[in-house]
Give the backbone structure.
Amino acid sequence: MRAPTFCIGVPTYKRADDLERFLNAIRPQLSGKPNVRLVVVNDASHDAAYQKLVERFEGLFEYRVLPENSGPAMARQAAFSGAGEEFLVMTDDDCIPGPDWLDYLEAVVTADPDIDLIAGNVEPVWHSKPGVFVRLIAARGNYPGPLVTEHGLLTAVGANCAIRRSLFEQIGGYEPELRGAADDCCVTQRAIKAGGRHLVAWNWLTGHKAETGLGEISRRAFNYGFGSVQYTLLDQDWVLAELCSDGSLASAFQTVRRKVRTQWTDCRAGGQSCLISLSFSAVSVLKSVQFERGWRKGLKTFSKAYERGLPQQPGMAESAVDFLDERARQHALGV
């Protein structure tokens, strides 16, 4: 049986040390795999440290340097430019894939050759000995992972994801118009809406650097909120809008309270002590408040630009009309 082909795209920016750890982890997995190609794209931060890596790992990966900083999404887009492989694989320079990371992905695709999108899982790893405080703020989802709601998969994160190249090209790849950090959600939802068959592979794991400060968590949450509004208005994604506030302070407060209450309940249900649960919930307050700040700012910024408001969940009547229209279209086509 012919092995499926993969192109792994890795964006990097001012993190030569992290990239070196990634390359050391992936090198044994690439041995004897001519069906896998690794492309590293430097987002306009090439220096002597990166040049040493290029020389040390010569022949292991293709290296491209962008002329100006464009963000991880456009760096991934550059990595996949001209790719001919069947699947495009996303991961980050501060990830450390386990020894069976590639083999597991190949097994998933081989077992289900019709799959189009695989959302992998992420777990924290430590690049140095962490203190108690660092462990607390890095735990319980403060590193990227797949987001699943009652409506199904919302986001397959770029830290661990694979998509069929033909589908990626069909949806136009990453949306260059997006600001903030909603690129992963945009690609995921456009792929699903285009009819892509998807799978959340919880056992397809990669490690992600967990050393994170409160400042970084705060900035990341704000950017997620800001970018999520732009994507929501651009694609009129009611599922994402349903998870967030309507822009008012009262709605924002209710949304934050709901998220923090969920965090507390999950911690206690998982057997955590009151102290640990309280610590996790405190970080959840920070993340939720900052997300809502970014979300509300995004509403002010993009609502006028797109001349539209937040989408609402389609009602039963609207769904029935859509169904009838689709049946009429199929009948006209003789399907």
User: Anything to note?
Assistant: The chain has two domains: 1-212, 214-312. The beta strands are 6-12, 36-42, 62-65, 87-91, 95-97, 117-125, 147-149, 152-155, 160-164, 198-209. Residues 319-335 have pLDDT under 50 and may be disordered.
